[in-house]
Amino acid sequence: MKPLKIALTKGRLEKSAAELFRRMNLDLSALENKGRRLILPVPPYEAVLAKAPDVITYVEHAACDIGIVGKDTIAEAAGSGGYYEMLDLGFGKCDFALAAKRDADFYAGYNVKRIATKYPNVARGFFAGKGMDVQIIKIEGSVELAPLLNLSDAIVDIVETGATLRENGLEVIEKIMPVSARVIVNMAGFKMRRNEIEEFLTEIEKAKAETI
Ligand code: PRP
User: Which CATH number fits domain 94-177: 3.40.50.720, 3.40.190.10, 3.40.50.2300, 3.30.70.100?
Assistant: First the structure.
């Protein structure tokens, strides 16, 4: 049987995921000395390092069996199917929030507000829920720049410590939704390799409980 492939989100979530693997008594030597390699043996599993939205793509197309990815990315990808969200891992905690320049009266006036975000679907859903018509402007990173350069009236982004907002003269107007790392599992794979996947889920849940 081929090893189960686990797609890990590169960057922010990588270290905490590796820490859970360590608590599961998995051999992390390949992962710790990965160089530029992207697929690493973590016996009996195989770890695949990918960018957050790609973790979902690989899992929904069954190229990977399991994925570890933020709820922010899952919320943005909503509508794409083919996978179950199985477990909240409790790390990578932050919030989706609406933020604007300090002292800006965001809701004042009748003009259509411009919202800069890396998460257009989340932003659209949030304002649709308020019955508010907005113009969404997609930005790829450092969204905080947009209101500072008057490209937008506000941003929808993830806020962790709040330092980026603070240091750029912005503040949260409203929290939208809490975010944390989740385990996702390909639906068909879950049927075919249920025992192995359930064993992984049990082990990672035990490892998570030890960290609390
Ligand atoms: C995220 C987010 C904010 C920042 C929030 O960006 O987009 O900019 O982190 O964190 P804080 O509240 O602790 O300051 P990230 O670092 O992932 O980089 P990016 O902007 O290039 O996506």
Answer: 3.40.190.10
